[in-house]
Amino acid sequence: MYSIKDIIKKSFLEGFSANDITLKTVIIALLLTTLLAIYIFFVYRALCRKTFYSKNFNISLVGVALITAAIIITIQSSIVVSLGMVGALSIVRFRTAVKDPMDLMFLFWSISTGIICGAGFAEYAVILAVVLTVVVIVLNFVPIAKAPLILIVNSANTDSEGSIIGAVKEYSSAYQVKSRNLTANSLDMTIEVRSKAGSELVKNVMRVEGVKGASLLAHDGEVTF
Q: What are the Cα distances from residue 41, in Å, to 46, 65, 210?
C-alpha cells in the first residue's frame, strides 16, 4: 500500500504502471493536473491580446487537461480499455476552427499537460510550464514595428487625386494607394499611410477641394520591420 508521499514521488519521478493505479493515485494525478491547468488558465488570461477575451475557451483548457489525464490513466489500467478508447476517440470529429495560433498553442499545452500528468510524470509537466511561460513572455516583449494606418477618402471632384496625394505626403513618412473607385461624380480612395500625426493628416486632406469625407483607421495587424 502506497502512502501519499510515495504516490507523489511516483507521479513526479517514476510514472505509473498498471498495478500502481488505485483510487488514491488517480485522485493525486488529477489534483496535480488541476493545479497545472489552473496555472495555464491564468497564463492565458494574462497573455491574451485579443479584443474579445473568451472565458469559456480558457475554462475549456482546464477541462481538456483533466479529461486527457483521465483518459491516459484509464488507458494504462487495461490494454482492452485502451484499445476501446482508441477506437472510440478515432470517430470523434471537431468542427470548431481555432483561428488564433496562440489559442492553438495553449490548447496543445493543456492536452500535453493532461497526457504527462496522466502518465505519472508530473515533474516534466511542471518543467514544461516554467520553460514555456518564460519563452512566451520573453518573445512577447520582442518589439515590432507599428502597423500602417488606412486612410479612406471620398471626394466629389474626380480630378482631385493629385491634390489628395499631396496632402497625404505632408503628414506621412510613407504611403501607398491600395484602391481607387472612380465614378462619374465621385472618387473613393483607400491609402495605406505611416504617420505620427493622424489628426493633422485627416484635417489636411479635408482641406482639399471636393473632399466630402476622410476616415483614418487603425488595425490589429503586426509587421516585423
A: 9, 11, 54
